[in-house]
Recover the amino acids of this structure.
């Protein structure tokens, strides 16, 4: 039997292919960035064809680096930036338009139109989500309403839609030559079009958004064989599909009710396992699918989604030139002892959880002549921790569960200054696992379970190991004082967009 499982990790800024052994160890990886396209303020796009080209590149690259061939893989899984929306022609394989990225805010008009009857929570009970620019349904509607010929082509049955997982799987399994048009329950739960209970496309939602059912992929479990790959991976079962945050939760072995993890990437995403119970949030969180393994009952989560965290560090690098690499932000922040009274609220795409304010925009407050670039760097890192604290407060209010520790993963968890401040701001220990790139690992686990490479949750739990732990060192009274200032700063972002 093959000794490894592969995972395509298609993220907001880059695509990776990672290869894991039975112990969950990384044996091969290749990664490539793709272009971020900003046609107008608030508009964020990707080129779907570039993303697919990067995907094939990194599959070849990782296999070559690991000195493996496709036949060494038992299966391949996919994990993806969620909500990023692709509409393409099923006959030609050509995208109708660039992918609208989850951060894109151009659909605020769609949100306003749908909110006029029933408010922002009009569909929340059915789909677990507030009306917001974040979710795929608004993006599909925008494309159909604004791209020449789109509506007619959709009505004729020529157009199909998918989040990036669907686009990648369709191309991976043959594209126009028999490609599988599928998604999984986790990605479908981010569209505003799937019923939380039915796990199927909801006719009422499709009617409200004006989206023909013929465009939509088949909803599958997160762990199941969808088809066989073509190209470099020809013949390998494509057997796992999870949105990136659900994949990270799965890779963190957060399989018990009350387990939580926080991923630090372009944005931050905290998920709390609520088991087979659908918990409706009263505190601005999302009710979302965690995963579904084959025929087993679906697992649900509460999620706190934060739009801009790692992306703020990129902004300091690319837009301001304050640093030349993302890693330098920690060095710059360490040149000062505190934030100098400055607070940075990065509401570049509005505010996500727990506020859901599309009218908000970013602010830096508390500036004096004393503040220098070190303070700005430190305030940027602290913004990540404070936003996480707000989500944690909401999660504890909704679930009634007091968090004892926080498992963390993603690129920013190697920033010791940030992780220490996160432990301080939460007043609980923060724990990084041995494999911090748990997103790809979770997709590999789902694929491996589907083909018998792993047999159970217990197999996967044994693979999890602690790498480092940070415990709170800051005085609780000082934390409370700074948190109050942070919340005051957040209010300054409101009502900016008229």
């Amino acid at each position: 039997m093959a000794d490894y499982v592969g995972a395509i990790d298609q993220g907001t800024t880059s695509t990776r292919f990672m290869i894991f052994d039975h112990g969950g160890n990384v044996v091969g990886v290749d990664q490539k960035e793709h272009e971020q396209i900003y046609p107008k303020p608030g508009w964020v796009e990707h080129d779907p064809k570039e993303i697919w080209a990067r995907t094939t590149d990194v599959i070849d690259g990782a296999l070559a680096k690991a000195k493996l061939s496709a036949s060494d893989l038992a299966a391949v899984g996919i994990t993806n930036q969620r909500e990023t929306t692709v509409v393409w022609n099923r006959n030609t394989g050509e995208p109708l338009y660039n992918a609208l990225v989850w951060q894109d805010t151009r659909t605020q008009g769609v949100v306003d139109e749908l909110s006029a009857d029933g408010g922002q929570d009009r569909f929340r009970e059915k789909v677990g989500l507030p009306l917001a620019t974040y979710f795929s349904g608004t993006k599909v509607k925008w494309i159909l309403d604004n791209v020449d010929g789109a509506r007619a082509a959709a009505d004729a049955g020529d157009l199909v839609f998918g989040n990036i997982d669907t686009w990648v799987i369709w191309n991976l399994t043959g594209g126009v030559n028999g490609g599988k048009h599928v998604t999984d329950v986790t990605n479908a739960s981010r569209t505003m079009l799937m019923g939380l209970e039915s796990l199927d496309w909801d006719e009422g939602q499709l009617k409200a958004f004006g989206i023909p059912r013929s465009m939509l992929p088949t909803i599958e479990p997160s762990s199941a064989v969808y088809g066989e790959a073509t190209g470099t991976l020809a013949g390998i079962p494509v057997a796992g599909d999870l949105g990136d945050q659900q994949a990270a939760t799965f890779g963190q072995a957060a399989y018990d009710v009350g387990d939580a993890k926080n991923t630090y990437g372009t944005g931050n995403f905290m998920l709390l396992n609520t088991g087979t119970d659908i918990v409706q949030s009263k505190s601005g969180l999302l009710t979302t699918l965690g995963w579904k393994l084959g025929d087993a009952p679906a697992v649900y989560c509460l999620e706190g989604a934060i739009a801009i965290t790692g992306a703020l560090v990129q902004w300091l690098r690319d837009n301001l030139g304050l640093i030349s690499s993302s890693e330098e932000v920690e060095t710059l922040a360490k040149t000062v002892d505190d934030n100098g009274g400055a607070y940075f609220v990065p509401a570049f795409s509005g505010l996500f959880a727990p506020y859901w304010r599309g009218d908000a925009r970013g602010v830096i407050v508390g500036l004096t002549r004393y503040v220098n670039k070190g303070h700005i760097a430190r305030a940027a890192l602290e913004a990540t921790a404070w936003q996480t604290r707000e989500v944690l407060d909401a999660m504890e209010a909704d679930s009634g569960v007091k968090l004892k520790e926080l498992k963390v993963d993603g690129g920013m968890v190697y920033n010791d200054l940030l992780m220490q401040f996160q432990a301080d701001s939460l007043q609980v220990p923060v724990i990084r696992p041995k494999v911090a790139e748990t997103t790809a690992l979770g997709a590999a686990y789902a694929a491996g379970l589907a083909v018998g490479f792993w047999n159970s949750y217990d197999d996967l739990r044994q693979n999890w190991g602690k790498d480092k732990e940070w415990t709170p060192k800051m005085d609780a009274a000082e934390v409370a004082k700074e948190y109050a200032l942070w919340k005051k700063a957040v209010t300054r972002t409101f009502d900016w967009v008229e």
Q: What stands out?
A: The radius of gyration is 21 Å. The CA atoms of residues 156 and 214 lie 9 Å apart. The chain is about 35% helix and 20% strand. The chain has a mean pLDDT of 95.
